[in-house]
């Protein structure tokens, strides 16, 4: 997570940086600021995921600074030498509230919570984008789905998806151009989304676009032969339901 540190005392910044770099590998410190004016400038230029924010600062305290921002697209961990601000920090929906001197275990736990919160927000944003895209696009084959891979999010036309295959909590997407995308979401998540657009579940681990089914093979078991030459197994529990949907 890109992280910004804000504290009016340089020794506090140095100490927090050392602790984070030593004990919190999820954090990438991209900047530090000793007042809220500098912090605002860095906020817009660096766009951090996480902000460690001192509360008691001379020109403007941390709470007032947050109130002055038009929007907060980052997680906040308050760091302060005073314990009377805890309730107010909770009202700002802070990830955590750490007292100086910062304990290593509490710091690590706060960073872990911030990371989980960030991932949850990203997933929600992707889902909202998907829903909005599906609502707005007029043609079925032109509708797109957001697929978050490890390093980037792919926006793929639904009509370009040949099939999906499950592996534990991952789903592999096979596209018409031969591209293969591995997505960190289970297949049941996409089953509900894609079923209204002509996809059928022929097996617990397989979801197929009906447009690419070439034939139903019954040699040595039941298989769907697809137009790209791949064969997908049909489970006994799905066989009768599948016949109703494709025949």
Order of helices and strands: EHEHEHEHEHEEEEEHEEEEEH
- For this structure, the CATH topology of the largest domain is Rossmann fold
CATH-derived architecture of the largest domain: 3-Layer(aba) Sandwich
Give the class from helix and strand content and strand pairing: alpha/beta
For the report, how would you describe the main beta sheet? 5 strands, parallel
Describe this structure in words.
This protein is α/β, with parallel strands linked by helices. The chain has 2 domains: 2-122, Response regulator (Rossmann fold, 3-Layer(aba) Sandwich), CATH 3.40.50; 140-246, LytTr DNA-binding domain (OB fold (Dihydrolipoamide Acetyltransferase, E2P), Beta Barrel). The protein has 7 helices and 15 strands. It has helices spanning 10-23, 36-46, 62-68, 86-91, 104-136, 187-194, 236-246; strands spanning 2-6, 28-33, 50-54, 75-80, 96-99, 144-148, 153-157, 161-167, 170-175, 180-183, 199-203, 206-209, 213-217, 223-226, 231-233. The protein has a 5-stranded parallel beta sheet, sandwiched between helices. It is elongated, with a radius of gyration of 25 Å.
SSE map:
Blueprint: E1 2-6, H1 10-23, E2 28-33, H2 36-46, E3 50-54, H3 62-68, E4 75-80, H4 86-91, E5 96-99, H5 104-136, E6 144-148, E7 153-157, E8 161-167, E9 170-175, E10 180-183, H6 187-194, E11 199-203, E12 206-209, E13 213-217, E14 223-226, E15 231-233, H7 236-246
Parallel strand pairs: 1-2, 1-3, 3-4, 4-5
Antiparallel strand pairs: 6-7, 8-9, 8-12, 9-10, 11-12, 13-14, 14-15
């Amino acid at each position: 997570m890109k992280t910004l540190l804000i504290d009016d005392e340089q020794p506090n910044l140095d100490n927090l940086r050392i602790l984070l770099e030593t004990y919190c590998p999820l954090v990438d410190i991209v900047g530090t600021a000793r007042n809220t004016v500098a912090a605002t400038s860095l906020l817009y230029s660096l766009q951090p995921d996480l902000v460690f924010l001192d509360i008691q600062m001379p020109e403007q305290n941390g709470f007032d600074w947050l109130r002055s921002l038009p929007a907060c697209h980052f997680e906040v961990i308050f760091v302060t030498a005073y314990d009377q601000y805890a309730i107010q920090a909770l009202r700002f929906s802070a990830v955590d509230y750490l007292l100086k001197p910062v304990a290593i275990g509490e710091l690590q736990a706060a960073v872990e919570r911030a990371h989980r919160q960030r991932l949850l927000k990203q997933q929600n944003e992707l889902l909202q984008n998907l829903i909005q895209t599906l609502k707005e696009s007029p043609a079925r084959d032109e509708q797109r789905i957001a697929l978050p891979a490890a390093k980037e999010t792919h926006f793929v036309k639904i009509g370009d998806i040949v099939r999906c295959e499950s592996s534990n909590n991952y789903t592999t997407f096979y596209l018409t151009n031969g591209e293969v995308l591995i997505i960190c979401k289970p297949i049941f998540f996409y089953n509900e989304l894609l079923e209204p657009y002509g996809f059928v579940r022929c097996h617990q681990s397989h979801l197929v676009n009906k447009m690419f089914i070439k034939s139903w093979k019954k040699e040595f078991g039941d298989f769907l032969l697809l137009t790209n030459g791949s064969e997908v197994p049909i489970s006994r529990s799905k066989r009768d339901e599948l016949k109703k949907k494709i025949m």
